[in-house]
Design goal:
mainly beta; 9 strands; 4-stranded antiparallel β-sheet; 98 residues; 3-stranded antiparallel β-sheet; 0% helix
Length: 98
């Protein structure tokens, strides 16, 4: 996989192909959230998980269809999700707050 995902302060995400240095995808949260705090690709690279600084949810993006595939919320992190990580086999996701 030769891609880089970049989270920006305006809650948008750009995906860049490192071989050509060209943008191959762009995503934007529609709700009023602060900048992206963490990004994590699925093992296959098809899904991209993101969380924003002031949000208590994780967004799943489908990089092939270039649209949001899901939204996962948690009441256990009222101060927002700051970090996410997928298990090695890709079947579990873990999140952490402040």
């Amino acid at each position: 996989m030769h891609t880089l995902a970049i989270g920006l302060d305006d809650a948008s995400i750009n995906i860049v192909d490192l071989r050509t240095l060209g943008e191959i995808g762009s995503y934007k949260e529609k709700t009023n959230v602060d900048g992206i705090s963490c990004l994590e690709f699925s093992k296959s690279g098809r899904l991209l998980f993101s969380c924003a600084q002031a949000s208590n949810s994780i967004t799943c993006w489908d990089t092939i269809c270039e649209q949001r595939a899901g939204l996962f919320g948690t009441e256990y992190l009222p101060d927002g999700v700051k970090c996410i990580s997928l298990s090695r086999e890709g079947s579990k996701i873990v999140s952490a707050g402040k």
